């Protein structure tokens, strides 16, 4: 059985003793934490993290990754906290373990496979440290190797997820050793019979071809030696899934696929690669159009190599790949190759931070690309995939939505549909109610609660990040404001027309055409809107309309000063009727309206001190009346002097609630040991309602002055 000491021996090849010691410490910690737990195979659980660490050791990963591998199931399975791990092993290791645990918690199985690509992105977005993914890949690889006695349907599900998500991520990161093994293990789990058949066919074909392989290999090697070129020729096997795919997708019979002999030549440097290519082309005739130079133009994940196909004896095709040792490491381990230690290296690669390493990898790709003079576009894709600026969240149905970093619930709602955004009133994130301004994180599931007739809120503009949400909110608000302004404008104009004993409805159509030209508006709605917004005076417009109606010769007509008919406000604070925050008018209070430019009508209490200045401008003041049917809540501020005692707040709160009102804000100032001043903001239905509440407060013991705040 593979033990921690075996692993430590292996690590001796590339890690300093103190780091090996730390890896061992993580192992013993995990052993204790998982004590008593067993794998399905009956082995002690800790054999699993040990095996995962061993996979990473074969890739020469750093000691923190290995420690995280040892501890990767500890948070999830044993209830040890992230903080406890941080205290024991430092924050970076705790972060890695936490990251792996988070990935483990997401189940992709029950979501649509069609979104596989988005899942890959989500996984990448959730792993701010690329090592998290590498550890997770190793974890998945060991789980796939030990699928064992699981039920076939469960096996297939895990295998499908592995194939669609993890194998692809491994491919994107260029970690091909893991990708290929994940692919073959998944294939065997999904199609056990087909895999078995291909495996047997490969074995027998290999037996038949053994002498031919050896012959080609030695003649290749001989021709290198003749030219004094350093290089090692090895035979290459196709893996099961790639054979299967060729048979399925290219409809080729097995024999034809296996008819190809594959070799790889590993050499010292790039110059040797091209020299060896020359030698090889001299030995066997190349198949036209099959040469590919991935050294000059690398693949998106950084893969570099020369590929060529040759005509062997009796026309048998021979595929040859030629690359340097470094390219070989890159082809096998991709991004992980960057954690390889060079002997005698003093500066610690991890000191730069794993992300810096990963960035270096991408930068390296960019460099290669620049030399190749190719478009940078595809490299941009790689970069975005690795360091996504985007976040990925689920809809309740399991669809994935992509949103920019910093997006909120409202952004999400609008990205689903404009109507959902406009009617959004609440939201559940992972089944818990959350504020609409909550910033989203990858992996969350969001459910938007809507109400018909609900409208966007001006305050949303303070936190939304997407252009779509922003413009949709603006559009909806503008629309709403327009409608309200037109309604108010109509009332104001009709009121101004009353002294002339006419109304909008009574005026002749023909009047409008001429009046509009004179007033420089295009439609009645535009005119009413500008009146409602306070950009135009209703009495001036009324005068023009009447003049036009009377053929323009009635300018001297005496107008009865007409403030006799008040404009009725029916409540519901909207976009063009606002209630002044200085005096908090309540239904029942005597009120006046002030038409403020661009804002519409602001309702003040008649006694409001702010009105004194405005009284010089009587044309902008309107008599107002409250509608009978008003049924809204209005804020009102009270100042109460009362004896200090325990439980006072609760007492007041109970009293207010019993009176069917709500407390919006409460603050207590201790004036002295005995007396307090309570500042209370309530929402009430109107003046009568308020009077009832004040009466109740008066009934409390030792109440002093109660003042309704006006300014
Ligand atoms: Mn695991």
Automatic annotation (TrEMBL):
Associated pathway = Purine metabolism; ppGpp biosynthesis; ppGpp from GDP: step 1/1
GO BP annotations listed: guanosine tetraphosphate biosynthetic process; nucleobase-containing small molecule interconversion; response to starvation
The cross-references to CDD domains, in alphabetical order and at most eight, read:
ACT_RelA-SpoT, HDc, NT_Rel-Spo_like, TGS_RSH
User: In this protein, which residues make up the domain named TGS?
Assistant: 389-450
ACT domain location is 637-711
A Gene Ontology MF term for this entry? GTP diphosphokinase activity
Q: Which PROSITE patterns match?
A: ACT, HD, TGS
EC identifiers of the protein: 3.1.7.2
Broadest EC class assigned to this enzyme: hydrolase
InterPro entries annotated for this entry? ACT-like_dom_sf, ACT_dom, Beta-grasp_dom_sf, HD/PDEase_dom, HD_domain, NT_sf, RelA/Spo_fam, RelA/SpoT_AH_RIS
Q: Which Pfam families match?
A: ACT_4, HD_4, RelA_AH_RIS, RelA_SpoT, TGS
Start and end of every HD domain?
45-144
Which reaction is this enzyme known to catalyze? guanosine 3',5'-bis(diphosphate) + H2O = GDP + diphosphate + H(+)
Q: Which cellular components does GO assign to this protein? A: plasma membrane
Q: Which family does it belong to?
A: Belongs to the relA/spoT family.
Protein name from the UniProt record: guanosine-3',5'-bis(diphosphate) 3'-diphosphatase
């Amino acid at each position: 059985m593979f033990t921690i000491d075996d692993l430590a021996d292996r690590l001796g090849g590339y890690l300093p003793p103190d780091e090996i010691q730390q890896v061992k410490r993580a192992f013993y910690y995990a052993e204790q934490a998982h004590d008593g737990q067993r794998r399905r195979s009956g082995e002690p659980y800790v054999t699993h993290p040990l095996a995962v660490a061993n996979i990473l050791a074969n890739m020469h990963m750093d000691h923190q990754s290995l420690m995280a591998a040892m501890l990767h199931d500890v948070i999830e399975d044993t209830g040890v906290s992230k903080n406890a791990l941080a205290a024991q092993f430092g924050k970076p290791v705790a972060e890695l373990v936490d990251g792996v645990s988070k990935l483990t918690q997401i189940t992709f199985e029950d979501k649509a496979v069609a979104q596989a690509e988005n899942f890959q992105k989500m996984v990448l977005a959730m792993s701010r440290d690329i090592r998290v993914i590498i550890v997770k890949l190793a974890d998945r690889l060991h789980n796939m190797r030990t699928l064992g006695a699981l039920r076939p349907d469960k096996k297939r599900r895990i295998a499908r997820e592995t194939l669609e998500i993890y194998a692809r991520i491994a491919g994107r990161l260029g970690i091909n050793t893991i990708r290929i093994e994940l692919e073959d293990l998944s294939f065997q789990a999904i199609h056990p019979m087909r895999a078995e058949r291909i495996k047997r066919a490969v074995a027998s074909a290999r037996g038949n071809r053994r002498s031919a392989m050896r012959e080609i290999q030695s003649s290749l090697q001989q021709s290198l030696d003749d030219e004094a070129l350093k290089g090692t020729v090895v035979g290459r096997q196709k893996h099961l899934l790639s054979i299967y795919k060729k048979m399925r997708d290219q409809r080729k019979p097995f024999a034809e696929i296996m008819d190809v002999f594959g070799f790889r030549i590993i050499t010292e440097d790039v110059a040797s690669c091209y020299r060896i290519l020359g030698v090889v082309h001299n030995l066997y005739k190349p198949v036209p159009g099959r040469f590919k130079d991935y050294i000059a133009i690398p693949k998106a994940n950084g893969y570099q190599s020369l590929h060529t196909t040759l005509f062997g004896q009796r026309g048998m095709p021979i595929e040859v790949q030629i690359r340097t040792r470094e390219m070989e490491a890159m082809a096998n381990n991709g991004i992980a190759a960057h954690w390889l230690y060079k002997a005698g290296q003093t500066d610690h690669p991890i000191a730069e931070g794993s992300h810096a390493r990963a960035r270096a990898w991408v930068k390296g790709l960019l460099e290669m690309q620049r030399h190749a003079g190719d478009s940078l576009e595809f490299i941009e894709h790689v970069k975005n995939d690795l360091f996504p600026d985007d976040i990925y969240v689920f809809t309740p149905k399991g669809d994935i939505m992509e949103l920019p970093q910093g997006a909120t619930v409202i952004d999400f709602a609008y990205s689903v549909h404009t109507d959902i955004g406009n009617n959004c009133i609440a939201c559940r994130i992972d089944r818990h109610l959350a504020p609409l301004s909550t910033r989203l994180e990858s992996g969350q599931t969001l459910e938007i609660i809507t109400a018909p007739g609900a409208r966007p809120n001006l305050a949303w503009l303070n936190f939304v990040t997407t252009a779509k949400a922003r413009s949709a909110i603006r559009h909806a608000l503008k629309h709403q404001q327009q409608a309200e302004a037109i309604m108010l404008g109509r009332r104001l104009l009709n009121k101004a027309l009353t002294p002339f004993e006419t109304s909008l409805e009574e005026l002749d159509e023909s009047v409008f055409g001429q009046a509009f030209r004179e007033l420089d508006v295009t439609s009645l709605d535009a005119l009413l809107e500008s009146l409602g917004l306070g950009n135009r005076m209703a009495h001036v417009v009324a005068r023009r309309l009447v003049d036009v109606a009377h053929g323009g010769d009635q300018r001297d007509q005496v107008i009865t000063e007409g403030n006799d008919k008040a404009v009725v406000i029916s409540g519901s604070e909207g976009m063009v009727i606002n209630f002044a925050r200085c005096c908090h008018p309540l239904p029942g209070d005597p009120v006046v309206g002030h038409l403020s430019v661009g804002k519409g009508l602001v309702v003040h209490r008649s006694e409001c001190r702010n009105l004194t200045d405005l009284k010089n401008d009587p044309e902008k003041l309107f008599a107002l009346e409250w509608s009978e049917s008003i049924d809204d809540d209005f804020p009102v501020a009270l100042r109460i002097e009362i004896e200090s005692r325990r439980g006072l707040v609760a007492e007041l709160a109970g009293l207010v609630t019993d009176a069917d009102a709500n407390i919006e804000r409460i603050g207590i100032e201790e004036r002295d040991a005995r007396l307090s001043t309570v500042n209370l903001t309530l929402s009430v239905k109107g003046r009568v309602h308020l009077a009832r509440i004040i009466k109740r407060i008066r009934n409390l013991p030792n109440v002093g002055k109660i003042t309704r705040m006006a300014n």
